[in-house]
Each structure stands twice: as structure tokens, then as C-alpha cells.
């Protein structure tokens, strides 16, 4: 009987305000932290917040809130949440939402909106944010009544995390927050049956894999999203196929594994790109053949058959024709594929790649001396060594990002967070703050350029106010380095608008009550890293690196993957 | 609404395809569909939308120029829209497709009989008679309307409007609720 009473109480909950329902939903969805910035149209929601066990992080700019939610989502695999007011608060989220969309990150954005009776009247701080974010969200909602809040918000969480994840925005008018309604538990979502690769396709794929002499696996972020790393390893060890990774796929397969090739594409290892062009089979797992991966499509791996396993069917046959399509969840696909393939080795092919790899190692900057200069690749390599490869690294966008991908060897999933698809400068610091909440015990390093750091440096204050610990390594070369590199290679060394002046980053850290250090020589790296790790608060290290260093190798945009610009090397001369 | 976007895969021949989609009748749902075509550069010949037998559900008939792979991807992209309930490519299915046109044609009294005879031959109706023009209404398959318009053109077409095709598969109705987008497996 007491159960029946309890159930009855559960089914007829007390009336609440729309604002209270917002928090009720967040708590029930397991949200522990939200990143936001208050303002007029979202004030009822903020006013209701203190009664609920959710931590709020006050950001310094809403773009930071979206990146934090994104960083939290990528570090945890759960949905990240950000909150902003109407108008400029909402539009400031846009870059962060687009970043999450391009990299399939599950984020729910809640924005305040002017009262429903004022919609469409160009009221103060009114903006059509559902219209603006239509192409950069998986879905969005305009909620104008308190009774619709719980339904829309629960659905938003479901959509954000299901299938190929992505951002969902829920725009709630001020009167919907103020109005009264009853909380309603989520209705079972209208679920389309998930696609699964049909048996016939699995058998075709297995036949191609068994017969291939020069196959390569292309592992993308889908491996991480599907939590399929272990299965991938099993698949690789059974088939003996070497694994190349996309930028976002790094960590999905251990870099220290003998069959790991590292990153492919525009700044991928030369031996990987050359081998891709020689392959007779590509097994693409959870990746979308981005142009930074393929180079010129017409010349991309023309001799190879392609198997494409991907959760989003609209990605199949978009850029590269798939000989066999394996739509569906990667875990399921690999579970089917592993028993279907023959156990074998690929000795001659692996050997051939190994020979090329050895040649690359000799050319590597690691084997050259620094001649008193501080080289960014040395910084990343040493950081990897000193942290034993165990840190969670969050990078920004540009040269340092590519050097990180090349020199910090990731053995674990979700140990690298970076803006891949959109390439958003300013991403790193706020994303790391979000990641901090997802992974309280992990060592976190922000690797960022002097340009990108200044785009969201205001979030250092957030670290100070919230008492958060991240280590910030600024790879400071006094240029917008990647653009400078393109100017060097393709624009006749005309360095237009790329020389960059920065504030004194050490003093800037101190102004925030944080520690700052400067490193100008390679010998100083270990001590600086040790001091940063020992410091309880956020630490900024200003690495003054060689100014005109370029990222090698480089495949020029839309070129054949074999047409790489290589690091100048004595033996070439 | 047609611009050639660079679909990277040069594959099969582009033909006219007819797709039927059901979507929830919610604010912005149609906007999402149209935005998808714009963003992804699909070529639309026509798009019609209207109510259905189910309250709260609208039905869309789309005619696009696409090859097989593009049509499949278009279908997959439509399925990604949360408001879209189901999509069916009826190009190769037994289906009826009709379009309605109003043609205002110049017809001075001395040529009226000639125009009326042509309309008769096409089973088109005259719905308005003015001093020097007629409005002709015709319903039919796209090519029938094309032919009618061609034979009326010499008289002088003053105004023309076409609704775009609506289509329906013959026989028992398609499965009324979400079915996953079909994806070509292998080739």
C-alpha cells in the first residue's frame, strides 16, 4: 500500500515554476555542473538555482561556457550543459555550439528568451537564436509555456547523447520560466530503430579484409564515442592490420602499440600518408574522410577498396565512395566483424611501413640538436616524457596542436581534447576547465598558442574564482604561427597580419593570483613542469619557442597525400 | 533553387527522383528541411507540403535531381532531422504523381476557339475568361503539363504557376512510422 501511495505522489507532483522544472530536469539527467552567465531573460532560472545540487561555474564570456560544456562532454562521455541569457548571451554561444556540432560533442545549451508576447517585436535583447543555430545544432526548441519545459529539456538530453552526438539548444521565454506547471517525467523518446550493418555487408567486409595484402585501418573519433577501443585492439591483433588515426581519433588505439602508425593527413607522418596511397584496402572506422585527412580526393588511396563503418549514414559516400558500407554503432559492427575475419599477419606490409618509419625518425627534429633554441616539438616531446604520457591534454588550434598530435603519444581514449572540425581558436582553456569537472583526479595540460590563448584568456579569472587547477603551456612564437607557415610556403613569405604582440604572460598569471613561469631553453623544461605539477593552483608557463619553425610534413590543401613538404634535411642537399 | 554544389563523388547519372516525407507539423519543421537542402547543396525541382490523414503530421513531396548515392544520402540527411518521421523514395515504386498548373494565356476573341480546343485535347479546364485572356487549369503528370504549356506558348503566356508534384504510392500504405533510412550496402 505504501508503495501505491508513493507512486501516486510521484505521478501528481506539485506545481512548480518553469525555472524550477529546468533544474528538476537537470538533476534527474545527472547534471552536476553547468557553465553559464546570467542576464535579464534567464534570471528566473538563476533565481531558482540555489535550491538544487548543481554547481554553477560563472564564465567570463559565453563562448567559454559552450566550450566548457563541450570539454566536459568530451572528457566524460556525458552531456555538458551551458546557460546564457537572450540576445548577445545566446549569440556568444554560437562559436562554441558550432565547435561541438562539427566534432559530435553532446552539449545542451539553455538560453533565456524575451517574454512570449514580445517575440518577433525586436524587443531588448531579443534574437532569433533557434533560427541562428538551426544549422549548427542537432535540434533546437523554442519553449513558450512552462508546461513544455520538462518535455523539451528531457528530449534535448536524449537527442544530444544518442546516435551521433551533438549540441541541442533549448530557448525558454521568460514567461515560460515564470509560469507554473507540473514536472513531467520523460516520455519514451520516439526512437528510430538504430541501423545495423547487415550480415551480408559484414561478410563482404570480412572477405575484403581476409584477402587484402596492404590494408590500413583509419580510426576516427567514432572509436572513442562508441567506447570501442578494446574491440578495436582485438580486431587489430586478430587481423594484423596497422592503424592510422585521425586527429580526433588519437588515443582510440594505443600509440605505443607496434601496429599504431599515428596520425594521417595534412600533418600526418610522411610514412603513414605514403603507405595510405599504396594500400589495397582502407578500413575506415568512425571517421568521415575530412579534407584534412584525404588531401585531394581524386588522388586519395585510388588503389584501395574502402570499407566504411560509420554511425551516421549521411557520411557514407559523402566524400569517398565506400565499396562496403557498415552503417551503425561501431561496437556492434566490430563485434560482428571480429568473429567473421580470419586471423592472420601482414609481415611484408608491416615491415615495409617500418622501414619508412625508420627513415622518418632520422629526419625528425628530435634527432637534431636544439642549438640553444627552444623548439616547440621539443617542448611537446618533453612534456609527454615528463608526464609519462598520462596527462589529459587539451589543445587549441594551430601549429602547437599539430606538434602535440605528433609528439605527445596518447595511449588512452579521451586523453586528447581538441577542436578538429571547426578548428576553433580559443577553445583550449575553457574546454580544459570543463574537462576539470569531468576528471577531477587527472593531470590536465592546456597546450595553446599565444594567439589562441588571448582569445579566451579571460577564463583564467574563472580558474582563479573557482579554485581550479589546470596547467597552461603557452607555445609562444610571437606569430599566428600556422598562418605564418602558410605565408612562408604559399604566399612568398609575406607575413601579413601574423606578427603578434602579447602581454607578459607571467605577469598576467600573477595579476590573476596564479603562478607564472617563463622557459626559454630546453634545459629549463623539466623544472618548470615539475613546479607546475606541484602547484595547487592553475599555472601558466610561457614557452618562448623558435619563432619561424614550421610543422612538417605538410600536405598542401587539396594536394595528393604524397606531395608533402618535408623538413629540410642534410642528406637532401 | 538550384546550384551545383561540389559533391565530391562523381557517380551515377542524375535523374529526377521523387521522395515523400512525413514530418511533425511544428514551427520551423519545414524551415529545417529547406535549410538542409540549401546547406548541403541538393538540387530541388519542387517541394510541396500539406496536411495528412494524421493530425499534427505534414507530408512533403520532393522532386530532386540526383544520382543513386546522392538520393540515398539525401534520405539519410532527412532522417537526421528530428521532426522528420519517415522518408520514402517512390521514384522506382508504383506511385501516382500529379501537379496542378494555372496558365493565363492570351486569347483574343478570334483565337479563343483554338485555345479551347487545345485545352479540350489536354483535358484542361478554363476557370476564368477575361476580355483578352483565359486562365487554364490543368492537373497531371509533370510531362503532360510541360506539353500543354508548350502548345499554349505561341498564343502568349501571360502568367504561369505550378504547384510542384504531389505523389502517393499505390497499394497498401507504407509503414506509417519511422523506418531507418535504407543505405546501399556495397555496390
Structural overview:
The complex is a heterodimer of chains A (573) and B (187). By secondary structure, chain A is of the alpha/beta class. Helix content of chain A is 38%, strand content 16%. Chain A is built from 24 helices and 20 strands. In chain A, the strands form four sheets. In chain A, strands 3-2-4-5-7-6 form a six-stranded parallel sheet, sandwiched between helices. A six-stranded parallel sheet of chain A has the order 11-10-9-12-13-14, sandwiched between helices. In chain A, strands 16-15-17-18-20-19 form a six-stranded parallel sheet, sandwiched between helices. In chain A, β12 (281-285), α14 (291-294) and β13 form a beta-alpha-beta unit. Chain B has 187 residues and is an alpha+beta fold. Helices cover 25% and strands 37% of the residues of chain B. In chain B, the strands form two sheets. In chain B, strands 5, 6, 7, 8 and 9 form a five-stranded antiparallel sheet that branches. Chain B has a four-stranded antiparallel sheet with strand order 2-3-1-4. In chain B, β2 (44-51) and β3 (57-66) form a beta hairpin. The chains are: A alpha/beta (573), B alpha+beta (187).
Q: How many separate helices of chain B?
A: 4
- The total count of strands of chain B amounts to 9
Tell me the total number of β-strands of chain A.
Answer: 20
Range of helix content of chain A: 25-40%
The portion of residues forming beta strands of chain B comes to 35-45%
Biggest sheet record of chain A: 6 strands, parallel
Overall helicity of chain B: 10-25%
User: What's the gyration radius of chain A in Å?
Assistant: 25 Å
Radius of gyration computed on alpha carbons of chain B: 19 Å
Structural class of chain B: alpha+beta
> Overall mean pLDDT score of chain A?
94
Structural class of chain A: alpha/beta
Rough outline of chain A = globular
CA distance, first residue to last residue of chain A: 89 Å
Oligomeric state as shown: heterodimer
Report the β-strand fraction of chain A as a percent range.
15-25%
Spatially, the strands of the biggest sheet of chain A line up as 3-2-4-5-7-6
The coarse silhouette of chain B is: elongated
Number of helices of chain A: 24
